[in-house]
Amino acid sequence: MVRGHKNGHSLLGWIGRAHSQRDERAKPGLRVGDVVTIATNAWRDYIPCMRFERIWVEQCRATRAIKRRFGAKSALDYLIGEKLTMFADAARDDPAFAQELPRFLAAVWRLFNADEIAGYVASLRPASRNRLRQLLYLR
Predict the structure, then answer these.
(1) DSSP output for 106-117
(2) Is the pLDDT score of 18 beyond 60?
(3) Are residues 87 and 26 in the same domain?
(4) Which class for 25: exposed (0-12), middle (13-18), buried (19 or more C-beta within 10 A)?
(5) What is the DSSP letter of 3?
(6) Which end of the chain is least crowded, N or C, by CB within 10 Å?
């Protein structure tokens, strides 16, 4: 039982009664699972219109806010340490992502100066450092 609940009924009992009453009122041709199927089909129709390879635009926009609020280190961790590395992984397998990668890299260079990027990359572990040096065209 839930303490302080009206009439001392348990919350689970109340939820069970509400679901059974709703099921009795439902139209004869529909079941609860049908709603999930309808929603899933609508979502599936919507996804092909989205261009996931352009997600970097929003990530760069978010990075500006992160840089203002939390500083360059946090913004570099977010954009280069997380988003750019995942985007580069996706670019290996998907030509649409590979086509967008140079634009993403150009945006990174517009957001941060060369010293910020070089200092961030130098602070990483050797494996990550070497990978990002190749990706960002650093020496």
Answers:
(1) HHHHHHS-HHHH
(2) no
(3) no
(4) exposed
(5) T
(6) C
pLDDT at 36: 47
DSSP string, 25-91: HS-TT--HHHHHHHHHHHHHHHGGG--GGGHHHHHHHHHHHHHHHH-HHHHHIIIIIIIIHHHHHHH
- Residue 13 reports pLDDT greater than 50: no
> Domain for residue 1, yes or no?
no
Considering the domain boundaries, does residue 119 fall inside one? yes
Based on the domain organization, do 85 and 128 belong to the same domain? yes
Beta carbons within 10 angstroms of residue 1's beta carbon: 10
Task: For residue 91, give its domain range.
Answer: 52-136
Contacts of 27 (CB under 8 A, 6+ apart): none
- Contacts of 112-119 with CB under 8 Å at 24 or more apart are 112/72, 112/75, 112/76, 116/72, 116/76, 117/76, 117/80
